[in-house]
């Protein structure tokens, strides 16, 4: 039986892992190579301003094996915050071992305690394994499509 997982808030000492994992996720899911200096500033920016969100880290036997980022979106329709789950990463050796489920359970519990109105995330349209996992956790596809426009940034993104 695998050792149990511990979920904890990330700290600044986790920044190097978070940067590495975000870069790995971008490569794996979108074949993108991220500018690591911009990524490091982005990760650190969460710690610099807690209104941006927070990271959770999963550990097994004292070793960090995964993370997720929670950010907030105000809903005027519901008069409350949606918590967006982003930047999910689980190290390859720990995949299919309940790491995301444990991270999600902690995020859900914290969201409920904080009075959030719901949890949201986005997923690549072809990532059927992740979609099955999210459905098994009680999430359902919504009827919105996501559009975006990248704007020039002083951050160099």
TrEMBL record:
It comes from the Bacteria. Keywords: Acyltransferase, Ribonucleoprotein, Ribosomal protein, Transferase. The keyword Ribosomal protein applies. GO terms for cellular component: ribosome. It holds the Pfam family Acetyltransf_1. CDD domains: NAT_SF. Residues 5-157 form the N-acetyltransferase domain. InterPro entries: Acyl_CoA_acyltransferase, Bact_Acetyltransf, GNAT_dom. This is Ribosomal protein S18 acetylase RimI. Gene3D superfamilies: 3.40.630.30. GO terms for molecular function: acyltransferase activity, transferring groups other than amino-acyl groups. The keyword Ribosomal protein applies.
